[in-house]
Amino acid sequence: MSALSALPFLKPVHLRSPRSSLGGQRRHTLPASEFRCLSPEDAISVFEIEREAFISVSGDCPLHLDEIRHFLNLCPELSLGWFEEGRLVAFIIGSLWDQERLSQEALTLHKPRGTAVHIHVLAVHRTFRQQGKGSILMWRYLQYLRCLPFARRALLMCEDFLVPFYQKCGFEALGPCEVTVGELAFIEMQHPVRGHAFMRRNSGC
């Protein structure tokens, strides 16, 4: 059984638009809001959002298009996309890591036997920013990780100015990250994924 089929939490959540109930005027109305794992077919939409979000700030993207496809092929179950009327508006991409702290290799590798989920990138489409969507998506993602029997904690690295945002999401700073990208330096942060067995009994996972 796949990880996805075993997890009720990850079944798409649909919030239907009022237009869908207007006497059948729109027979094929898309859900107003949907959360689901990403697939390789979503890679271009993901990259377009990421490129706009990061290049203007840092001059580079955490993941390039081929790397996005790489992770969405290897571990799509560690991604989560937020769709509005079928349009991707925000996403998270992760992979597994098997060491205590992140290293340069963590940027490109997925370690199937790892117990740490390395969150590579969270990005929100420019027209949907300043609406709290990043925080909501991260909360849903962390809840989802609690349903995965192998996940023990989430790891990420970010620039200094993003530390307060991730602290509000429940992450704690571990100190400077050994990973560098060009001249950029990062703070490494972690979030515990608490006792998975207990969470499964008490969260419907």
UniProtKB/TrEMBL annotation:
GO cellular component terms attached to this protein's record: cytoplasm
Establish whether keyword DNA repair is in the entry: no
Q: Which reaction does it catalyse?
A: a 2-arylethylamine + acetyl-CoA = an N-acetyl-2-arylethylamine + CoA + H(+)
The protein's Enzyme Commission number: 2.3.1.87
Q: In which pathway does it act?
A: Aromatic compound metabolism; melatonin biosynthesis; melatonin from serotonin: step 1/2
Q: Can you give the residue ranges of the N-acetyltransferase domain?
A: 33-194
Print the organism lineage.
Eukaryota, Metazoa, Chordata, Craniata, Vertebrata
The GO biological-process annotations, alphabetized, read as:
circadian rhythm; melatonin biosynthetic process; response to light stimulus
* Name of protein: Serotonin N-acetyltransferase
What gene name is listed for this protein? Aanat
